[in-house]
Amino acid sequence: SAVISQKPSRDICQRGTSLTIQCQVDSQVTMMFWYRQQPGQSLTLIATANQGSEATYESGFVIDKFPISRPNLTFSTLTVSNMSPEDSSIYLCSVERDRAQETQYFGPGTRLLVL
Amino acid sequence: AQSVTQLGSHVSVSEGALVLLRCNYSSSVPPYLFWYVQYPNQGLQLLLKYTTGATLVKGINGFEAEFKKSETSFHLTKPSAHMSDAAEYFCAVRPFSFSGGYNKLIFGAGTRLAVHP
Q: Do A106 and B102 touch (CB under 8 A)?
């Protein structure tokens, strides 16, 4: 498995502001992902964070709204930009150690409330 | 398109009773199958997974699931529920395509399990 930490664990933000969420893994991993879980709902993949290159976004998610960085094999950030109350969600980082592992492991999540 | 269906958004059982959470997938080629659990205010924890081999898979906390290809199902069971099992359970599939291999995880809508005394 993998030990994954996220910062902050929760935050309350004003609309129009931006928040950067950090994801740190205890060892190098091949794949890192960012998911959104809206209140009472399932998980939706936002993007795959690629080390050293631009993230790969899923349909409905754009870089201007959710810029992602991945400077190395253990760390990634997700920024939620120009927030609105609709962005209130849990944001989860997940990792896959390598393709052969088949399994994604998830961080504890960041609970965001936008007022 | 590949999909995963969890029957029952809420399931309530008595402590000590059998837990059965249902999951069906739509795929012509058997995908990889996973069950995750989310306790209140926490992230997702892997309970068990099926990729190949034995179709009855045992996981943590006494849970197990059986892959039934003919029924395209991967139901999660536990013989005796405990109060600590109260949580949200997500079935997830990793579909296979001949062009790209096994693709990204697709999650079901989730089933909230309540356990009462």
A: no
Q: What is the pLDDT of residues B35-50, one digit of tens each?
A: 999 998 888 999 999 9
CB neighbourhood size of B32 (10 A): 18
Q: Are B105 and A103 within 8 A, CB to CB?
A: no
Which residues, 6+ apart, have CB-to-CB distance to A35 below 8 Å? Answer: A43, A44, A45, A46, A91, A92, A93, A94, A106
**pLDDT tens across A2-50, in order?**
889 999 999 999 999 999 999 999 999 988 999 999 988 889 999 999 8
**Distance separating the N- and C-terminal Cα atoms of chain A:** 36
Helix (H, G, I), strand (E, B) or coil at A16: coil
Q: What is the pLDDT of residue A12?
A: 97
Among A21, A42, A93, pick the best mutation site for testing chain B contact (most B Cβ within 10 A).
Answer: A42
Residues of chain B with confidence (pLDDT) below 50 = none
B86 shares contact with chain A (CB less than 8 Å) = no
Across the A/B interface, how many CB contacts are shorter than 8 Å?
40
